[in-house]
Fold these 2 entries.
Entry 1:
Amino acid sequence: MTVIRTVKDPEKLTLTIVAEFDASPERVWDVWENPRKLERWWGPPTWPATFTRHDFVVGGESRYHMTGPTGETHAGFWKMIAIDKPARIDFLNGLAGADGEPDPSMAAMSGFVIFEDIGDQTRMTAVTSFVDAAQMDTMLAMGMAEGMTLAVGQIDELLTAAAV
Amino acid sequence: MVVEHDLTEDDVDRIFHALADRTRRDVLGRAIGREQSVSALARQYDMSFAAVQKHVAVLERAGLVVKEPRGREQIVHANGPTITQAVALLDQYEQLWIDRANQIATILHTEKE
């Protein structure tokens, strides 16, 4: 089981995911730094990502697009806020317009990732913070929601929340 | 998070019936956070307008969505406090990140061999 824990905070609008990999922190770091590796995992399986720019330095920016099953594309960008190799990355991830450049009308999500050496494995903790539900929905509409439906196991949670 | 259960048994039956169908779960997911017209929803499925309308009606009876006329369109939006929408949206992001972590594991595993 790669993912060992997820924490959803619907009040603070944050998602935390903790995963452990059979590799050194340097190797896990490389799947973030190397754009050819990054594009093999950033997009959902049905929406592969292509990074046309990846300036992996503090203040540097990335440009990417994801291509859906019928050829439609959605573009996004990253901006690197802090990089502490191989321990921590802080970055912004937002929508880009048709020209591939950041869309200023939509706030970017902020996130950070921590890499910890836990012996034979590396623990990766990724935290994403959202501004509001509209932002989450718009980002999901970038194709990330394709093929995703509320799983039956999540119905309980939905009902619990609906009763608040 | 304070949770109060003020749903009757009948309410719960209607909600479970509504969510027991994959299409209706998908319709609810789409209506969360962004209102949609019934015709816009119908275009996204390989089924008739009437069939989609029927699914929306089941969700409406369960109190999961609200439908209101606007001009000639019927607009559907998810019914519930923001926190309900946030939970459902976070669920989808959670799945996205689980997929990402699994894809990273595959890359690392492949490199090793």
Entry 2:
Amino acid sequence: MQNSNTPLIQSSLKFHTFENEVAVYDSVSGKLHLLPFLGVELLKLMQQGSNMCVLVNTIFTFNDFDNQKENDADIEEAEMMVKQFIDSYRDLGLLD
Amino acid sequence: MCNFKFKSGELSVSLQTSMSTVKQHCELVYKHFPSPKETDFVDFHVSVNPVKGYRRWLRPQVQFSFDGYEPFAPLPIEQAPAFFEWGLNWCIANNTNQYLIIHAAIVEKNGYGVLLPGTPGSGKSTLCAALVCQGWRLLSDEMALLSITDGLIYPAPRPISLKNQSIQIIKQFSSEAVFGDIIPDTTKGNIAYMCAPKVSVISQMIPVVPAFIVFPHYRANSETKLTPLAKSRAFMTLAENAFNFNILGSVGFEVMADLIDKVECYDFSYPDLISALNGINDIVAKHEKE
């Protein structure tokens, strides 16, 4: 994924981090979500314009899969996970 | 026409009514409440009066109005005192956005504020009434007013609304509890209002630091069980129980987050009133020892 294609997260979002989860509030829609910590880290990276490689690496770091990330199948799986996050966040209205 | 004025915490109320039942209700349950000074700003000008026209003879009804606006359909005239209390709840819930308003009872002991958010049937008001009979300070049995400027909870004590079996349970629990007349056949069943203790009214200008949020669940024939609740879950549940969370927007989100960060949160199941009282008292006692 190129920087130019990175989805933009809504500027109206507010975050509050709990132990393993993050409360995300959209002050425009008034919707409140409780999201996994990893998912919100990905959101914030997207906000900074990070590309797919950074997002995938983040998943490996979180899951402590550093030793597996040379494996094509694992990379593919992580890419799929990022895409699923993007789709579900778009459905929630968190992404443009 | 009677004009009855009182102060509940920082909120001032002026009630106009021609109904003797409403007047007697207020004279009993607001007996200890101070009146605002002549120069004080009155937050809520409300009236409770019979509906005029043929209804007066056929099926008499009562109407509640706030600043001349009638937000509800009329109710049977026997329910006039309850209509006043419900109407005033509505006024506070919709017009005091200097607070994040959480649907919860709030009581205090030894400086520890305990929030008891509860869905209908959870036993929130019964538990609150019993704690108050035991000497806990009543801040509110219905709405916790969390200041958006200092994060403290401000009292707005009012009579405690009890329903059906709870009325008898509290009457048996405390012979000192003072009740208004039972109002039968409302949409909530039979209800009666228990007076707020004088000591709670005297200290009604003193805010409290919230220390615990306890979600009570009355479950007959169950065991008493106090379970720590993840703060993230408590946050989501409390947000659902806040009347003006979305009106306050980002401010409401931040105030709620600050609250959750500084309190301990519990789920609390109990089979009877005595177990519930012991459980809540234990939470504070344990904290005081630590």
